[in-house]
Amino acid sequence: MIELAQRAERALPPDVWAYLMRGASSGESPWERWRFAPQVLRDVRSIDTATDVFGAWRSPIGVAPTAFHRLVDPGGEAAAARAAADCGAPFVLSMRATTRIEEVAAAAAGPWWQQVYLMRDRTITDALVQRAAAAGATALVLTGDTPYVGRSGGRGLPPLDDDLALVNVAQHLPPGADAWAAIEQDAGAVLDDIGRLADLSGLPVIVKGVLRPDEARRCVDAGAAGVWVSDHGGRQLGRTVAPAQALPRVAAAV
Prior knowledge:
Helix content: 25-40%
Number of helices: 10
Order of helices and strands: HHEEHEHEHEHHHEHEH
Strand order of the largest sheet: 3-4-5-6-7
């Protein structure tokens, strides 16, 4: 991983690299403190890592929703979806994608999920959700931990043409609308939105950004088909409990 990061740093413009690496805090990841306790004398001649979570996958390790892939590769999200499909791994398309939903769906060649931000203009959110469902998404991933963008997470975004950044939303903007204001996250999102999205799309809804067992239970009781234990990659709030610490209690709660 260190070698890959070094190669990426050499290949990317400095402002793009800085944006990718910026988080809300610094220091050692809690995951680095975890250690495995291997089992022994098990027949491992045939190993099956396949799993079935809103789609059948050969690999339980997948691609989380990340924005603006074409900042780092001209193939953008379509290339990432194609690579994930080649590995039999889950792929989640960001609502801040730089490639059209339909192009990514064609490249995925298998199950994929659509990430959802509840935007201030809900008609845009609804239109994108319906397009994703029509294109073949097998689940929605509702990001619930970002009513506002964190100071570090949204600061220093490299220059991005509207034609690229708004590739999926432009056709849904009202005439004369301020595009960037319309697609900002809605700070008024609530648990009832889980069921509304499920009804709108006909798809299971996974709530991403859950770190507390009581919140996980509330999400499931409100209709979530699953919860995603996440701290947004450390890009929003730097003082939260880490997913590595939260996972056991959240799993027990649901």
